[in-house]
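Whiteboard transcription, Tuesday session. T.W. wrote the structure tokens on the left side:
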């Protein structure tokens, strides 16, 4: 006697393997997106957006490492004090850092550190191309 098997292929599709793949992709993208972080930078416009003098305080550093706030030369040791004084006179003003091309980056970072420590808004000025 011959025994026949009644094995029909199932017409239902199992989604469990598909959900596993989607879950793994979701975890992968969540982990990789948290590793890469965006840095917020305030960069000057290349095409001359002008700001009024009341809104900016210019900090200039020349090649001989002389510091100026607007047109007044200051002692670099008192930079933080002079910046506070200037910002008290013009509250809400933005600092505009202008360093000559050959000035060491550590001099600019010094000003940026003071601005960061005191939560001052600061923009680095560059020459348009």
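and on the right, the sequence the group agreed on:
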């Amino acid at each position: 006697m011959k025994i026949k098997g009644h094995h029909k292929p199932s017409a239902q599709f199992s989604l469990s393997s598909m959900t596993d793949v989607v879950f793994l992709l979701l975890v992968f993208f969540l982990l990789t997106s948290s590793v890469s972080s965006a840095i917020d930078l305030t960069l000057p416009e290349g095409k001359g957006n002008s700001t009024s003098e009341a809104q900016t305080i210019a900090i200039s550093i020349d090649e001989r490492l002389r510091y100026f706030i607007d047109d007044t030369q200051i002692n670099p040791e008192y930079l933080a004090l002079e910046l506070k004084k200037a910002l008290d006179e013009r509250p809400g003003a933005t600092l505009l850092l202008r360093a000559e091309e050959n000035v060491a980056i550590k001099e600019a970072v010094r000003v940026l550190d003071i601005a960061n420590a005191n939560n001052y808004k600061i923009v680095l000025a560059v020459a348009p191309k």
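Someone added at the bottom: The two ends are 94 Å apart (CA to CA).
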